[in-house]
Amino acid sequence: MGSDPIFSARTPAPRRGDWLDRPQQRPFRKLLFQIHLWLGIATGLYVVVISVSGSAAVFRREANRWLVPQRVEVIDGARLSTADLAAAARALYPGYDVARVGEPVRRDRPVLVELRRPGQSNVSKERLFDPYTGRDLGNSYPALLRAVEWAVRLHDDLLGGIVGRRVNGIGGALVLGLAATGAVIWWPGRRRWVASVVPKRGVNAPRIVWQLHSVVGLWSFVLLALWAATGVYFAFPEPFEALIDAFDDDPSDFYRPGEAALLGMIKLHFGRFGGLGIRVLWTVLGLLPAVLFVTGFMVWWRRVVRKRLRAGGAAAAALAEPAAPAAAVAIAVPITVEPNDSVAVRDDRRPWRDSSEAPAP
In a 3-state reduction of DSSP, which class is residue 335? Predict the structure, then answer.
């Protein structure tokens, strides 16, 4: 009995140099593709949470300066006493008692006044007052600032304390694996890599999504890897510190080899350099991991899930149809069934086949 050529044909063994010219034909790349795919699906929600919360956390210091009054005008000889400030606070908030009046360390700082409802110690307000005029300057901890601090805690430890910080470190290691496998998968070959660093024009919408995922992943690779590596360090600093100490010839001095580079990576992680422009840029760049997950999910859904749903629907429809006459079947089989079967088998063998993955001529 003859064998089906579709199933019996063997893929020729890759030649030396094929990885540089035809990486799509290497089995190792296909394995990395599956690892990248399922890592992305498994960590998708985590990546989106860390991405959005990290962008919100960039302006943590600025939010405190923008939302909380920092200075008042100094008026010589007009500073109010503690009793006068308490009286001003009681007049503005008659349903509260003054629990505490703070004492700023500098003359140009506002005074914190804590107020509480009688018999309800859990109901309180913390207001900032001008110590020279007695004017209420606002809440010392406004709702928007609390939201920013909540986003910071979500980004740092997933609101879970030390356990959340450890989980965050594991997530950082997985994202580092995503970045590494994505970089290898992106490589299209020596003849095509220049054309693959920017999106192509005149392509359809699904193709645009795939190109956006590839190009954004390429250009953000270094930053993504840095964010992931420092995330691992924040959760598990001991191995990093031990590695630095291993190269320190003189532990008694203040110089530690590699420590400056580590501190530089931490500054890059948070965008703690430059001015406001860097903060805005880091806020936008911080959303790139979320963009990568959304585009990757869209590609996976279109190429895998939707095809399987359609195949299942077609099979159910075929079972529901009445049996065709024998003559019609005899005529239809050689014309339609065999080509469709052949295409289906080839699609199953290469479900992620794309024009960008075609071997170079």
Answer: helix
